[in-house]
Amino acid sequence: MFLCLLAEGLAVRGAETQGEPAKRISAIKTLELQVSETIRTNKSENTSTYVIKYKLPDSVRKEMLTPELNKGELYVYSKGKKLTWLPLFKQKKVETIPEGEDKIIDILRYIFRMEKEDAAFRKEYYAGKLKGVKLGEKTTIQFSGYTLCDGYLFPLRFTVLEKTATVGEIKITSVKTDPKFDEKEFSTEE
Question: Is the pLDDT of residue 19 over 60?
Answer without folding.
Answer: no
